[in-house]
Amino acid sequence: MSWLHSWCGLVFGWLLFGILLTGSIAVFYDEITYWLTPEMRGGPLPERHQVMHLGWTYLDAKAPQSRLWKITLPTTREPFLGVSWRTAEGRTVNQRLDPETGAQIKRDSEGGSFYLKYHEGLHIDRDKNPLGLLVVGATGVAMLVACISGIIVHKRIFKDFFVLRPSASAQRSMLDLHNVLGVMALPFHLVMAYTGLVLLYWLYVPAAVQALYHGDAPKFRTEAITQEFKTVVGKPAGPAGLMGPDQVLERAELYLGPGKMAYVYVRDPHRANAMVEAYRMRDDQVSQQVNQVALNGVTGQEVRVLVKRSLPFRVQAFAAALHWVEWGGNAARWGYFLAGLISSTMVGMGLAVFVEKRARQARRPLAWLRVIGAVNVAAVGGLCVACIAYLWAERLISVSVHGRAAWSVAVFFWVWVVTAIHAGVRPSRRAWAEQFGLTAMLCLGAPFLGGLIVRDLEAADGVRVAVDLTLIGLGLVFAGMSAGLVLKRPASTVRGLKLVEA
Amino acid sequence: MAIELKKDEPSIWQIVARTVAALALGYVLTYILTAALSLALFRAGWASRPDAANISTNLAFLAFPAVVIWLFSQRRLIWALGAPSVATILLAFLTVVLRL
Description:
heterodimer, A: alpha+beta, six-stranded antiparallel β-sheet, 8 strands, globular, B: mainly alpha, elongated, disordered N terminus
């Protein structure tokens, strides 16, 4: 069992560290997008009717012939007006507008959702290749295995929880830290690993869809929705005069609650069969369940009625919401961010213990252990550098550069490649110290790119200043870790070790 | 469950066999369990078709880590591999019987 924990932890730990770290960062993906987009204005949002009008007239002018419009109203977390429409060729165009002026935000960027895409599928486009998704799913299973086998391996789990020997040998204190962090956040680890699988269950194990639907996944998803709703056939529509934006907002919020409409689809605008589907915000409920109202686009009558919620889908939506954390506001997001960093640190420490323990037992340099040590540095230190290098790329690449979003992503992966080479050629301890040191410098420098932090402070922009300060805080932590590695001699060479351990 | 492999580092063939089994048998058993459970729930009238798919898949996820732990906790290889293999064959049989 100990063997399972060590090796499963090592092989999947290399992947898991990146998935956990990007997942922790992705908790704040909206805030990061906002921080990376100077064109977005914070502060009080304009009146909702006014914004709805702006989006509506924009779509009417840009895409009057389109069969599908979407308008996303701004929120404090995403303070822009989103418009999108389907073209005659079936392509979807997405645009972000200033909610006050209607000016288009022409910044080709993935923003904070880059971390989300890495977290869910290693940034491999899931529509083109499900491999990334499946690898992350397998890593989720491995995390469950590592948690359970870790508990079994650890016989004195409760007693050892209170043991931390910072001045003992490096291996001991790292193992203690690994144990403390592992046990402290154990419910979080288990719940996140399991709910991560529940989020996209039919993709990971398509057996039931195969058995019950002969592999027709769209049919399964349609049936899952239609079993809860009944479509009411309205009277034949009269003249094809589409409802106005005011009416749509007011009628939709009659059902969804005042101020609760998040986005709205308009199907077949200006046609007799026009339909409006409005979706509710999820910030005040621990459920990913779709909450929507469908209205006849001409008469405003409800055309789909909720019959009964399915209990299994409610449970699944609850589990999914535990993972997605759209609820609970900033307190929940900070909790998840810090717990996620604890998970990442636990995995990083586990990887380091693997090498330390075997190096000590062997008492001579082992070639294969040297390789594993280098991969550890690249998987942990290198990923930290790459994550922050992405922010630098986003900050420094001019808005006018063609294919800008792809360039920033490329910077992330190339920086990671370079750190892997660095880890391969430098002595292990130096490599750790240098990569943490570089992460520290990049974290500390990011808020000052283009004098950003000064502007944020002047504008008293709470969200941007919070991102700036978080980066500085993380920079100091990394600087501390780097300095610790440089200054503190390996504990095994410290004289008087026996005294400390006794 | 708490039976440990005798030595800390078991033989390479033991490791290869158990690792391959953990990945392959773990997934196959999870897959077949999902299929059998979804068909049983639907056929028995305990759940609608989408509900059956939902319940079975989300419960079967738990089988995967359980199989992996089992494979590495049993001292005898034949027993470690045998039990999940027999379970897979029985569930596969059930799936064929209940198929739509």
